[in-house]
Amino acid sequence: MKKLFVVFAFLLTVSSFAQKGLGMFGKDPIINLENFDKQRVHWGYYLGFNSYDFKFDYLNVDKDIEVQTTTGFNVGLIGNLRIMEHLDLRFEPGLYYTQRNLIYPNIEDEFDRRREVRSTYINFPLLLKFSSKRIGNIRPYLIGGFSQSLNLGSNSKAKDDNYNERWRMKRMTGNYEAGFGIDLYFEYFKFSPSIRGVFGIEDELIRDNTPDSPWTGNVASMKTRGIFINFAFH
Fold first, then answer.
1. All domains of the chain, ordered by start, with CATH?
2. Signal peptide span per the entry (predicted)?
3. What are the φ and ψ backbone dihedral angles of 164, each rounded to 5 degrees?
4. Of 227, 233, 192, 232, the residue nearest 7 (C-alpha)
5. Rounded distance between C-alpha atoms, residue 101 and residue 54, angstroms
């Protein structure tokens, strides 16, 4: 929630700065890229940050596994197809790097208590973008849809498990995504800061070979969730 608040405050600051800017975003702004959104197809790219987490469900009531999140980075491409005036279809393939640290409170050994889960995802989201009416050089929007993620660090084919310090996850998983952003129109390009949540819809965990494993034996499901902060340029 703190991260969401910080990002929301950032987007409000960007919007406020844009509205108070001279020339481009003032009371009677010079309209930039007036026909940009009328293109049938246009392209772009994005850079950004992520904070991935896990949502655990358990077979039996016990102490929760603690998930320590870190800040990762994103980079990707944007393909935008205009469907109608306020609706676009987007494909945003990208590379997402992240790390999550899992702490098991029931394991006494300090080394075995901690597991580092490093993941490099190739994300394939297909999204619908709902844009408001453009006001000067500002246009807020909502965006949402579904994605498939290929986890290059899944260790899904490894025979070793946590008893050999190997954390295993499924290689391909599905998610749904939802967020909001602001299009800011400058003289030569469009800049779009946005925030988006990602929520896994499948159990991603590959259990250890031993059914009563202290790392995976009590886990009913493990699903990804996270926050993306992207800065797009068109």
1. 2-233 (2.40.160.20)
2. 1-18
3. -115, 25
4. 227
5. 10
Instruction: Tell me: pLDDT of 62 over 90.
Output: no
Running DSSP on this structure, what letter comes out for residue 36?
G
Lowest mean pLDDT among 40-44, 107-111, 208-212, 222-226: 107-111
**Token representation of residue 111:** 């080394």
* 3-state percent breakdown (helix, strand, coil) of the chain, nearest 5: 10, 55, 35
* Contacts with 199 (C-beta within 8 Å, 6 or more apart), sequence order: 175, 176, 177, 223, 224, 225
Average pLDDT, the chain: 89
Alpha carbon 135 to its chain's center: 28
What are 206's two structure tokens?
């590959």
The contacts of residue 232 (CB under 8 Å, 6+ apart) are 44, 45, 46, 78, 181, 191, 192, 193, 194
In this structure, the chain runs to a length of 234
pTM: 0.84
Closest CA to 36 of 231, 190, 191, 209: 190
